[in-house]
Write a structure and sequence with these properties.
Elements lengths: L1 H20 L5 H7 L4 H4 L18 H13 L5 H8 L3 H12 L1 E6 L14 H4 L18 H13 L7 H6 L3 H12 L2 E6 L3
Antiparallel strand pairs: 1-2
Helix pairs in contact: 2-6, 4-5, 4-6, 8-10
The protein binds heme C (2 copies).
One heme C (HEC) binds next to α7, α8 and α9.
Pfam families: Cytochrome_CBB3 (PF13442)
Keywords: Electron transport, Heme, Iron, Metal-binding, Signal, Transport
Protein name: Cytochrome c553
Length: 195
Protein backbone atom coordinates (compact mmCIF):
# COMPACT_ATOMS: atom_id res chain seq x y z
CA UNK A 1 0.00 0.00 0.00
CA UNK A 2 2.60 2.48 1.16
CA UNK A 3 4.82 1.66 -1.76
CA UNK A 4 1.94 2.04 -4.23
CA UNK A 5 1.03 5.34 -2.64
CA UNK A 6 4.57 6.61 -2.95
CA UNK A 7 4.61 5.62 -6.60
CA UNK A 8 1.38 7.47 -7.25
CA UNK A 9 2.74 10.52 -5.46
CA UNK A 10 5.94 10.27 -7.44
CA UNK A 11 3.92 10.07 -10.60
CA UNK A 12 1.91 13.13 -9.61
CA UNK A 13 5.01 15.14 -8.87
CA UNK A 14 6.43 14.20 -12.22
CA UNK A 15 3.18 14.94 -14.02
CA UNK A 16 3.02 18.28 -12.22
CA UNK A 17 6.65 19.02 -12.98
CA UNK A 18 6.66 18.50 -16.71
CA UNK A 19 4.07 21.11 -17.72
CA UNK A 20 5.86 23.52 -15.37
CA UNK A 21 9.23 23.03 -17.06
CA UNK A 22 7.70 23.17 -20.53
CA UNK A 23 5.63 26.26 -19.77
CA UNK A 24 5.12 28.30 -22.87
CA UNK A 25 6.30 31.56 -21.38
CA UNK A 26 6.87 33.58 -18.26
CA UNK A 27 6.70 37.36 -18.75
CA UNK A 28 8.40 38.05 -15.39
CA UNK A 29 11.39 35.88 -16.31
CA UNK A 30 11.26 37.62 -19.68
CA UNK A 31 11.60 41.00 -18.01
CA UNK A 32 15.04 39.93 -16.76
CA UNK A 33 16.05 38.78 -20.23
CA UNK A 34 14.86 42.15 -21.55
CA UNK A 35 17.64 43.94 -19.66
CA UNK A 36 19.82 42.67 -22.55
CA UNK A 37 17.54 44.37 -25.06
CA UNK A 38 16.83 47.70 -23.40
CA UNK A 39 19.70 49.72 -24.85
CA UNK A 40 18.12 49.31 -28.29
CA UNK A 41 14.44 48.37 -27.76
CA UNK A 42 13.79 49.90 -24.33
CA UNK A 43 12.51 47.83 -21.41
CA UNK A 44 8.93 48.49 -22.60
CA UNK A 45 9.73 47.82 -26.26
CA UNK A 46 9.80 51.44 -27.41
CA UNK A 47 12.97 51.55 -29.50
CA UNK A 48 15.71 54.00 -28.57
CA UNK A 49 17.70 53.87 -31.84
CA UNK A 50 16.25 54.59 -35.30
CA UNK A 51 17.38 51.31 -36.90
CA UNK A 52 15.67 49.17 -34.23
CA UNK A 53 11.90 48.53 -34.28
CA UNK A 54 9.39 49.10 -31.50
CA UNK A 55 8.50 45.63 -30.23
CA UNK A 56 6.31 46.33 -27.16
CA UNK A 57 2.76 45.05 -27.64
CA UNK A 58 3.53 43.01 -30.76
CA UNK A 59 1.85 39.61 -31.05
CA UNK A 60 3.84 37.03 -29.05
CA UNK A 61 3.72 34.64 -32.03
CA UNK A 62 5.41 37.21 -34.26
CA UNK A 63 8.11 38.12 -31.72
CA UNK A 64 8.99 34.52 -30.99
CA UNK A 65 9.09 33.59 -34.68
CA UNK A 66 11.46 36.48 -35.50
CA UNK A 67 13.80 35.70 -32.60
CA UNK A 68 13.98 32.07 -33.69
CA UNK A 69 14.56 33.18 -37.29
CA UNK A 70 17.54 35.30 -36.18
CA UNK A 71 18.84 32.41 -34.09
CA UNK A 72 18.65 29.85 -36.90
CA UNK A 73 19.98 32.31 -39.49
CA UNK A 74 16.74 32.39 -41.52
CA UNK A 75 16.76 36.17 -40.88
CA UNK A 76 20.12 37.87 -40.53
CA UNK A 77 21.24 41.04 -38.80
CA UNK A 78 24.66 41.85 -37.37
CA UNK A 79 23.22 42.81 -33.97
CA UNK A 80 20.24 40.46 -33.60
CA UNK A 81 22.07 37.37 -34.85
CA UNK A 82 24.62 37.83 -32.05
CA UNK A 83 21.96 38.60 -29.42
CA UNK A 84 19.83 35.53 -30.20
CA UNK A 85 22.81 33.17 -30.46
CA UNK A 86 23.17 33.56 -26.69
CA UNK A 87 19.50 32.90 -25.83
CA UNK A 88 17.87 29.55 -25.04
CA UNK A 89 14.46 28.66 -26.52
CA UNK A 90 12.94 29.22 -23.07
CA UNK A 91 14.49 32.70 -22.77
CA UNK A 92 13.14 33.52 -26.24
CA UNK A 93 9.60 32.46 -25.22
CA UNK A 94 9.88 34.41 -21.98
CA UNK A 95 11.22 37.63 -23.48
CA UNK A 96 8.63 37.45 -26.29
CA UNK A 97 5.93 37.09 -23.61
CA UNK A 98 7.34 40.09 -21.70
CA UNK A 99 7.27 42.43 -24.68
CA UNK A 100 3.89 41.09 -25.87
CA UNK A 101 2.42 41.88 -22.44
CA UNK A 102 2.24 45.58 -23.29
CA UNK A 103 -0.61 47.61 -24.67
CA UNK A 104 -0.26 49.80 -27.71
CA UNK A 105 -2.21 52.88 -28.65
CA UNK A 106 -1.72 54.27 -32.15
CA UNK A 107 -2.90 57.73 -33.16
CA UNK A 108 -2.96 59.12 -36.69
CA UNK A 109 -1.69 62.69 -37.13
CA UNK A 110 -4.32 65.45 -36.70
CA UNK A 111 -6.55 65.88 -39.70
CA UNK A 112 -5.41 62.68 -41.42
CA UNK A 113 -8.13 60.18 -42.38
CA UNK A 114 -7.63 56.40 -42.18
CA UNK A 115 -9.07 56.28 -45.72
CA UNK A 116 -5.77 57.71 -46.98
CA UNK A 117 -3.82 54.69 -45.62
CA UNK A 118 -1.93 52.51 -48.11
CA UNK A 119 -4.74 50.21 -49.29
CA UNK A 120 -2.44 47.30 -50.16
CA UNK A 121 -1.34 47.03 -46.52
CA UNK A 122 -4.37 47.78 -44.33
CA UNK A 123 -5.96 44.32 -44.39
CA UNK A 124 -3.03 42.94 -42.37
CA UNK A 125 -1.19 45.90 -40.83
CA UNK A 126 -4.21 48.18 -40.23
CA UNK A 127 -4.62 51.81 -41.30
CA UNK A 128 -2.87 52.91 -38.08
CA UNK A 129 -0.20 50.20 -38.23
CA UNK A 130 -1.59 47.95 -35.51
CA UNK A 131 -1.49 44.41 -36.89
CA UNK A 132 -4.71 42.48 -37.42
CA UNK A 133 -2.88 39.14 -37.62
CA UNK A 134 -0.92 37.16 -35.04
CA UNK A 135 1.98 36.55 -37.42
CA UNK A 136 2.30 40.11 -38.71
CA UNK A 137 4.06 43.00 -36.96
CA UNK A 138 2.78 46.43 -35.99
CA UNK A 139 4.19 49.17 -38.21
CA UNK A 140 2.80 52.09 -36.18
CA UNK A 141 5.44 54.65 -35.32
CA UNK A 142 8.37 52.62 -36.67
CA UNK A 143 10.95 54.97 -38.19
CA UNK A 144 10.74 55.34 -41.95
CA UNK A 145 14.35 54.10 -42.05
CA UNK A 146 13.35 50.79 -40.45
CA UNK A 147 10.27 50.23 -42.65
CA UNK A 148 12.22 51.21 -45.77
CA UNK A 149 15.07 48.82 -44.87
CA UNK A 150 12.72 45.87 -44.28
CA UNK A 151 10.71 46.40 -47.49
CA UNK A 152 13.93 46.63 -49.51
CA UNK A 153 15.24 43.50 -47.79
CA UNK A 154 12.06 41.62 -48.82
CA UNK A 155 12.39 43.07 -52.32
CA UNK A 156 16.04 42.03 -52.69
CA UNK A 157 15.48 38.65 -51.07
CA UNK A 158 17.80 39.14 -48.08
CA UNK A 159 14.66 38.73 -45.89
CA UNK A 160 12.11 36.20 -47.13
CA UNK A 161 8.41 35.69 -46.44
CA UNK A 162 5.77 34.05 -48.64
CA UNK A 163 3.46 37.10 -48.53
CA UNK A 164 5.81 40.05 -48.00
CA UNK A 165 8.39 39.07 -50.62
CA UNK A 166 5.72 39.24 -53.36
CA UNK A 167 4.21 42.44 -52.03
CA UNK A 168 7.56 44.23 -51.76
CA UNK A 169 8.62 43.02 -55.21
CA UNK A 170 5.72 45.02 -56.65
CA UNK A 171 6.64 48.29 -54.93
CA UNK A 172 8.91 50.99 -56.41
CA UNK A 173 11.43 52.71 -54.14
CA UNK A 174 9.23 55.83 -54.23
CA UNK A 175 6.14 53.85 -53.14
CA UNK A 176 8.18 52.23 -50.35
CA UNK A 177 9.23 55.67 -49.14
CA UNK A 178 5.63 56.96 -49.23
CA UNK A 179 4.26 53.98 -47.28
CA UNK A 180 7.13 54.13 -44.79
CA UNK A 181 6.33 57.81 -44.17
CA UNK A 182 2.62 56.98 -43.61
CA UNK A 183 3.30 54.50 -40.83
CA UNK A 184 6.21 56.50 -39.38
CA UNK A 185 3.89 59.49 -38.91
CA UNK A 186 1.64 57.49 -36.54
CA UNK A 187 2.18 58.27 -32.86
CA UNK A 188 2.69 55.09 -30.84
CA UNK A 189 2.35 54.75 -27.09
CA UNK A 190 3.41 51.59 -25.28
CA UNK A 191 2.38 50.79 -21.70
CA UNK A 192 2.82 47.65 -19.61
CA UNK A 193 -0.42 45.69 -19.15
CA UNK A 194 -1.69 46.25 -15.60
CA UNK A 195 -1.45 43.08 -13.49
C1 LIG B 1 22.49 46.49 -30.11
C2 LIG B 1 21.08 46.76 -30.34
C3 LIG B 1 20.08 45.63 -30.13
C4 LIG B 1 19.95 44.81 -29.03
C5 LIG B 1 20.80 44.78 -27.77
C6 LIG B 1 18.79 44.00 -29.29
N1 LIG B 1 18.24 44.31 -30.51
FE1 LIG B 1 16.59 43.46 -31.37
N2 LIG B 1 16.90 44.54 -33.06
C7 LIG B 1 17.91 45.46 -33.25
C8 LIG B 1 17.88 45.94 -34.62
C9 LIG B 1 18.81 46.96 -35.23
C10 LIG B 1 16.81 45.25 -35.26
C11 LIG B 1 16.37 45.36 -36.72
C12 LIG B 1 16.98 44.20 -37.48
C13 LIG B 1 16.76 44.28 -38.97
O1 LIG B 1 16.93 45.36 -39.53
O2 LIG B 1 16.42 43.24 -39.55
C14 LIG B 1 16.21 44.39 -34.25
C15 LIG B 1 15.12 43.55 -34.48
C16 LIG B 1 14.49 42.82 -33.49
C17 LIG B 1 13.26 42.07 -33.67
C18 LIG B 1 12.45 41.96 -34.95
C19 LIG B 1 11.24 42.85 -34.80
C20 LIG B 1 10.42 43.01 -36.03
O3 LIG B 1 9.53 43.88 -36.01
O4 LIG B 1 10.63 42.30 -37.01
C21 LIG B 1 12.96 41.50 -32.47
C22 LIG B 1 11.76 40.63 -32.14
C23 LIG B 1 14.01 41.88 -31.54
N3 LIG B 1 14.92 42.69 -32.19
C24 LIG B 1 14.05 41.51 -30.21
C25 LIG B 1 15.14 41.72 -29.37
C26 LIG B 1 15.26 41.13 -28.06
C27 LIG B 1 14.21 40.28 -27.39
C28 LIG B 1 16.47 41.53 -27.56
C29 LIG B 1 17.11 41.16 -26.24
C30 LIG B 1 17.19 39.76 -25.91
C31 LIG B 1 17.09 42.39 -28.56
N4 LIG B 1 16.25 42.46 -29.65
C32 LIG B 1 18.30 43.03 -28.43
C33 LIG B 1 18.81 45.88 -32.30
C34 LIG B 1 19.02 45.29 -31.06
C1 LIG C 1 -1.79 39.39 -46.28
C2 LIG C 1 -1.19 40.09 -45.14
C3 LIG C 1 -0.19 41.19 -45.41
C4 LIG C 1 -0.31 42.27 -46.27
C5 LIG C 1 -1.45 42.62 -47.22
C6 LIG C 1 0.90 43.08 -46.04
N1 LIG C 1 1.69 42.50 -45.10
FE1 LIG C 1 3.45 43.23 -44.41
N2 LIG C 1 3.70 41.58 -43.25
C7 LIG C 1 2.82 40.52 -43.18
C8 LIG C 1 3.40 39.45 -42.41
C9 LIG C 1 2.76 38.10 -42.10
C10 LIG C 1 4.69 39.91 -42.00
C11 LIG C 1 5.74 39.15 -41.17
C12 LIG C 1 6.82 38.66 -42.11
C13 LIG C 1 7.83 37.75 -41.46
O1 LIG C 1 7.44 36.88 -40.68
O2 LIG C 1 9.03 37.94 -41.74
C14 LIG C 1 4.83 41.26 -42.54
C15 LIG C 1 5.95 42.06 -42.33
C16 LIG C 1 6.08 43.35 -42.81
C17 LIG C 1 7.17 44.25 -42.52
C18 LIG C 1 8.34 43.98 -41.59
C19 LIG C 1 8.12 44.78 -40.33
C20 LIG C 1 9.01 44.43 -39.18
O3 LIG C 1 8.67 44.83 -38.06
O4 LIG C 1 10.06 43.81 -39.36
C21 LIG C 1 6.93 45.41 -43.17
C22 LIG C 1 7.78 46.67 -43.17
C23 LIG C 1 5.69 45.24 -43.89
N3 LIG C 1 5.18 43.97 -43.65
C24 LIG C 1 5.11 46.20 -44.68
C25 LIG C 1 3.98 46.01 -45.47
C26 LIG C 1 3.49 46.99 -46.40
C27 LIG C 1 4.11 48.34 -46.63
C28 LIG C 1 2.39 46.44 -47.00
C29 LIG C 1 1.54 47.04 -48.09
C30 LIG C 1 2.23 47.46 -49.29
C31 LIG C 1 2.19 45.13 -46.41
N4 LIG C 1 3.19 44.90 -45.50
C32 LIG C 1 1.16 44.27 -46.72
C33 LIG C 1 1.57 40.46 -43.76
C34 LIG C 1 1.08 41.34 -44.70
Amino acid sequence: MIRAFALVLGGLTLAGGIPQAARADDPEAGRKVATMCRTCHGIDGYATIPIAPHIGGEPVEYLEAQLLAFKTGAREHEMMSVVTAGLTAQQISDVAAWYAAHEVVATLPDGVSPDEAPQACVSCHGADGISLLLDAPNLAGETNIYIDTQLKAFKRGTRKHEIMSDIAAGLSDAEIRQIADWYAAVTLEITPVAE
